[in-house]
## 1
Amino acid sequence: MRDSVRMPRAPLAGGGAGSPPVRRGAPQRVRDSLVGMNETARPEADAVVSVRGLSKSYGGKLVLDRFDMDIQAGEVVGLIGANGAGKTTAVECIQGLRRQDAGSIRVFGLDPARDAQRVRSQIGSQLQDSGLPDRMRVSEAVALFAGPDASDPAALMEQFGIAHRARAPFAGLSGGERQRLFLVLALLNRPRMVILDELTQGLDPAARRGVWAAVEQLRRTGVTVLLVTHELTEAEALCDRVLAMRAGRILDQGTPAELIERHAGQAIIRFTLPVSDDHAAATALQQLNRLPEVQSVTRTGDIVTVRGGRVVIAHVGAWLTSRPEPVPADLDVHIPDLETALLTLLTDPPDEATEKAGALAAPAQATGGLR
């Protein structure tokens, strides 16, 4: 019986014919990254990827709508968006697999439509639908995809923790081992940029952490990484910047902390604060209200609720530890995270999301803070 083979239609892993299996991924960087702001973006001189006014339609359906982005060398950039947001089409255009209807793309200063092979030779891809023959051994796969200027295969396999599995067949690898193998193949031919699509999908927590550590190794070596993921905790842990995409446009972008600040709402701290009388209760509430970043303080019975920015957590904690009473045993802290921020942004009705993005653009643009 023949082994089942799932191979990509084009080798894109840095080194031409000796490239690992690839499919699709997606990056994005936008100077003015909000809906309606794309036309004002300016190219970055040192950008690895620079896209301007990119549009693409299929059968009359607009998939990419005049969006711009810049990706800088050495960044780990995450692209978040629901199925159909345009992520795959954007990456196909960037890699020269699909021609845009309008707009310009430069990757390492090259036009992917005219210089597709030169662009692909500098990109390594670990992508969701990659596959190898079941009986192919790890060492055989590495030898197959190694180009003439490849890195030392043994050193790479050791670096990513699969050297001891060199003689194992692909079908015998665990999910985490397969992902690490595809990382080795993606890096084998010394690419300047790596695309990672749903890197840890289906992995157990231990395997996921191991793959995260591998991405951190890429960061340390200065490789530019484009990470497409539905795991928002993954994006928060790994990415220098995150781009939220819907309907062919970027709704917002920034560091995880910036997106959390803009879209995730307040930190909430609740605890029991027994007091001897109303005067003592009023004094405690006044002290809490005076703390930096506190937006509101309420009391229901003995339960106090404090709301504010994330930094308020530290101030309330310091206030509690400064009191003679023990820190309340029922202290509960809700910390806003990237998942809350992007779910809020991406699930708002389109008009409402656009209004929120536009409202944020003006002050950020005026100060140069939204970049």
## 2
Amino acid sequence: MLTLSAPPEVKISIGHKIFASLFLSCAVLVLLMLATLRISLGRGFEEYRAQADQAQAAQEFLNSQMRISTLIGAVALALSSLTAAVLSAHLKRPILLLLRGTQKLAVGEYKTRIQVEGGDELAQLARRFNHLAHTLERGNESRKQWIADVSHELRTPLAVLRAEVEALQDGIRPADPEAFDLLHGQVMALTGLTEDLFQLARADLGQLNYKMREVELWKLLQEVTEPFQSRYAKAGLDLSIVHESSRLQAHVFGDADRLRQLLANLLENSLRYTDAPGRVELRCQDTGTHWRIRLEDSAPGVPPEYADKLFERFFRLESSRSKKLGGAGLGLSICRAIAQAHEGQLQAAASPLGGVRVDFLLPMVRK
């Protein structure tokens, strides 16, 4: 069976297209000018011949004018060709730079940047390209850092598990309840880490399930803080909850379980890092358009330049606030994902109490 293939597509570069369009435009203008000149000369010649005594002299005059017009047209076409070539080369240069830049981005050279000149549309396109390259570079660095951080977090409990199991196998350590408790603790740490990673991955893919309904926020705050009261008291910390609003009820639209998870993570974080004796205050404030849940704790604090990084994955400040063990630096990242799913915001700043202030903003439900 004979199969007819389509003819190969003729590829014409953008430079050739620009040159052709400019040249044709100039050529059309020159031809129109020559046509107008010829018509004008023809009419003038008829009038001249009617008045002239010698027809041959009139014809020579017309031929001379036509030769001059032809020469002018040829020079004009040559100049238009030169002008079109120069302009097409000038317009082609930024386009070629963009083409080479996209080719480099396609092979993973995310440090590629294009020099921006001028303020026209091509310059704006170059700026957008540089912004895209910067975003891809940051994403690639974040991905590499993510892999390194996950490897580091998994390495420690796995190393402890391996050492303990080998000690049990060699008979160096007796198989007593203490040994099994240690193994169980490392297994639970691994389980918590993998669960946090799984939740963050689902949040990135938009696969976290949210059962949105109207929630009474003040009641939810009381339910979340009640189990923490005894733990805070045992740790030498004073936990207080205050409702700062003339409204008796604080209605929001969200998933009660996810909101409970977010608030519990914030309270757990303050419990873990606040020095005893210390204070932790949880306030429910009315801003007019949003409900603001403000959690403040006492020392130690966080330098202002690191406040926004608290919600980054695996971020743990190397200071007195991170001296205690526990956690992989994922809890606040999960909180941010939950807040964004509720069209809310999480913000961190220094607290007047000496520690950290975290504000959680949620849109109000209007009655």
## 3
Amino acid sequence: MRNFCKRLPNSQNLTAPNNPHLRIDIKSLAMKTFTKTRLSSLIISLGLLATSTGAFAHGHESSKPQLGFETQLVSGNVYMLSGVGGFTGGNIGLTIGDDGVAMIDNGLPSVLELLKAEVAKSTDKPIDYLINTHVHGDHIGNNEAYGSGKTHVISHQNLRKTLLEKGISTGGGKSKPAPKDHLPVLTFSDQMTIHINEDDANIKHFAAAHTDGDAVVHFKKANVIHTGDILFNQRFPFIDTNNGGSYQGVINALQSIHDMSDEDTKIIPGHGPLATKADVATTIEMLKGARNLVQKLVDDGMSDEDIIAANPLKPYAEFSWGFIDANRMTKQVLEGLR
């Protein structure tokens, strides 16, 4: 632009031939014309940039997984179904074979059709048995949908008792009576076994752990254990003391699961990725370590509020997640110590 202006006549003002009183500032006019041209180009460039950025953003958003499930073959004919693209509930177990199909837990009511579609990718057979690991709605939310058909729902007797006495939570501290089809029709007190698909699926109760009605399913031949919410793999657990759970009970149950396992055992946790015996050991160590850290502050005479503010579980920060962070876990530890 500067070189262009240098080439203009020395006199910046010219007289219009038809109007001697009208004087024109050539350099000013040239500058304005050049500026408008540059501005137009800039606007066009920004428009193209916005368009390409929008296209990139749209492509980026479309690359995010939609809410649904993914299926992982664990061992033998046992599969794990876990949520993708959002929260679908707890991890689901599935055994498929000539004898039929048994499912362990069934997710939230809102994902029923997604669950059915995912199961249909592996089998077109109906669900013969539905095992409930505990009472929470993110694990047994679709009991009624399956129970209204030919599926036999199985649980520990305390789970059925809780549903009959407390009903189904509807949020905000409210509940509604559990429909008949939502209730388990086969219950046990200590343990039972389903002999299916050339395997023995042993269902065992662990008292006062995550709840008072927890069931762990052990496929002996496949060497697979589904723990329900006794194990939250690589994250802090939720311990439902309002439904009979306890801190020490979780540790006791995890120790039993650890002892049931070997180095090749595949463990389906209630939440989190597929686990191993070593993962169970890590969780036990975290629970004991967290309790020791909080116990020390209790012994020093600190109040619960001061203990929480001190963030004693900072060494276990990697276990924090959306539902249970370090503060909430500290409160659970304190409750377990009282």
## 4
Amino acid sequence: MSAAALAVLGEAPRGGALAFPFLHPAWLGVGIVGALLAHQLWPRPWWAAPLAGLALAAAAALAGLVPWFGQLQLTGYAVLMLAGFFAAWRWAAARAARLGLPADSVREQVVIAAIAGILGARAWYVIEYRREFPSPLSDFGGWLSLAADLDRGGAVWFGGLLAATLALAVHARRRRLPPLAVADALAPPVLLGLAIGRIGCFINGCCYGAACACQLPWLVLRHGTPVHPTQLYETLACGSLALVLGRQPLRVAGSGRIAGWALIGYAAWRFVNETMRGDYADKLGAGFSLSPLHLTSAQWFALPLAALGAWLLWRARRHAASPCACGAHGAAPPAAEPAAGQGAAGAEAGPPR
């Protein structure tokens, strides 16, 4: 492992972090990935996949590719990311039950989305900010250790969205689940989880805004310079979008319309919020641009995301106008709305309070 990698790994924990000796995050990451791959090959017996993951991680450590032990940091970023996943899971389970989706499949979907999302978000970060890492060709062990050091922060949400979507599509196909119903069930909870996770970004100091000369009362100081709290902007935007879409009537769910509006709403917001970000120039160099249009990678990704959302809305409208639209989406018919005076026990569950 290079001296640069060791220096970064040996840094003191950030303020407010609780650090303690534990198995190294890179070791754990290799074990989790190995267990997931083994589960696809040998789903029975249940203990075969974890055992294969442990064996793969041990082999990687014996070969010198990853360390055995390291310093595990319990940061506000990690706590809020876990809180976001938990809130999304609870709300998604309630919405899926109202749509007639099997509860066990929804639990599997949330776990798959969490793991694939973390891996995809981190992979995109490592690729986009590759100058922060040693070359994998000259120091693969150091590169892998830093790339798997998730508790230090550093993730790109669009990378997580792409990886999680692909993984969920494969799982839904294998379980014969209606994909649009799954998308409608998960869209508002995912936005809620992102809203909570962005608070962790604010605490961690990543994804920060650009310097602002205007005297806005909500600006925050970064190294003595007033900057936009872009992380909290996204918390407000995603939280509001999640609440609005979560209150849509169940007769709309299962058509893809809720997922379509979620894609359009987030893509439009993210495109605007990127214009107030300041971390790209600091990490990638002044004048950073991916094209003559000076768009960031997130802005480029937002364009096809909005187009996909528009296609889902068009498809939902076309099916709604069709005389055989009933049951066309494959979802079980939602439970009847409770009659007046029967209480709210049967009403659709909102986000956890």
